[in-house]
Amino acid sequence: MPLSVQETEVKNPPVSRPPLDPHLKALENEAIHIFREVAAEFEKPVMLYSIGKDSSVLLHLARKAFHPGRVPFPLLHVDTTWKFREMIEFRDEIAAKYDLDLVVHTNTRGAEEGITPFSHGSALYTDIMKTEALRQALDAGGYDAAFGGARRDEEASRAKERIYSFRTPDHKWDPRNQRPELWNIYNGMIKKGESVRAFPLSNWTEVDIWRYIQAEDIPLVPLYYAAERPYVERDGMMILAEDPRLKLLPGETVQRGMIRFRTLGCFPLTGAIRSTASNLDEVIAELEIATVSERQGRAIDRDQSGSMEKKKREGYF
Amino acid sequence: MTAPAQTASATILPFAEPVKAARDTRPLRLITCGSVDDGKSTLIGRLLWDTKAVKEDQAATLARDSGKQNDLGLPDFALLLDGLQAEREQGITIDVAYRYFSTDRRSFIVADTPGHEQYTRNMATGASTADLAILLTDARSGILEQTRRHATIAALMGIRQFVLAVNKFDLVNYDKAIFEKISHEFREFALSLGVRQITAIPMSALKGENVVYSADSAIPWYDGPTLVETLELATVRTAQAGGFRLPVQRVARPGESFRGYQGTVAGGSIKPGDPVVVLPSGVVANVKQIVTFDLVRNAAVAGDAITLVLDRQVDVARGDVIVSLDGQPMTGLHFDAQLVSLQPGGIEPGRRYWLKSGSRRQRVTVEPISQLELSTGKWRPHASTLAMNAIGKVRLSFEEQAVFDAYEQNRSTGAFILIDPDTLNTVAGGMITAKRAELGGIHTEGQRVLMSLPADLAEQIMASELFANRRDETEIRRLTAKQAVELFSNAASDI
Question: What is the predicted ipTM?
Answer without folding.
Answer: 0.85
